[in-house]
Specification:
The chain has 292 residues and is mostly helical. The chain has 13 helices and no strands. Helix 2 runs antiparallel to helix 10, helix 2 crosses helix 12 and helix 4 crosses helix 9. The two termini are 32 Å apart. Belongs to the EamA transporter family.
Amino acid sequence: MVEKETYLKGAGVYYVLLLGVVTLSFAGVFVAMSDAPAITIAFYRMSLSVILLTPIFFRRNDCRLEKLLNFRQTVVGFFLAIHFILWVTAFDYTAVANAVIFIALQPIFTLLLEFIWAREDLQPDIIAGVFITILGSLVVGAGEIGNLFANIKGDFLAVMAAFFAAIYLFSGRSLRKKMNYFPYIFSVYFYASIFLFLGLFIFGHSFTGYGSRNWLLFFGLALGPTVIGHSILNLSVRYVPTTIVSVAVIGEPVLTTLFAWLLLGESIPQLTFPGGLLILLGVVFTMTRKSG
């Protein structure tokens, strides 16, 4: 039986969601600093997250080993693993500007899923916010619009990554209504790490030999963008429609660009400023209209 959860009330969910997106935005910086293969980064990001959360799992009364033996969490974990594999691999083939455009497809996919299975979550103001953020993403990527579809493989991987992210969040919202928060995130991360382990084995990458710098980055990805960032996304979908969470996540690449400028000295494309403002406007518009 699912206990009644009272973690968030009212507008509090949006402040927490903002914290999650900000924390999640450091993932791109950490990945850029690592020279390990993409799937290796994804595997250690998830497996170290599971290790960090294991002591808490065994101390909680609502966490039992039989809760791991559930087909539904296995499927959600599979969706998360596929999203990570597709997303980090896409950057090997497509421009970052293209990825910013394609990540905007995620809330469109969630809107479609809600239209089919959860029409009660559909609201006109949410749809308007989605299209404002999409417009902002197009502005951000307009500087390299000539490269759009220059590499079909990379662009297709980015689109599919957005699609699986939408499925991951949408299926998680449904399942979160039936499970307590911590057993849910632990089991999903556990299965995602297993699928990533299989992927690492299938692609023939080494599990060792990455140096202390990479291990620190793996740990940073686990502790920040995953244990805090992704866990907040999973908490938020219990309280608000999946599309709102997806819209908020569109702000991630803008913040990642800012952090890369501050921490790595990378240049910021000129159109990132007006496009980023539109994205943030769409995010704020969606959240305030829903919370109001």
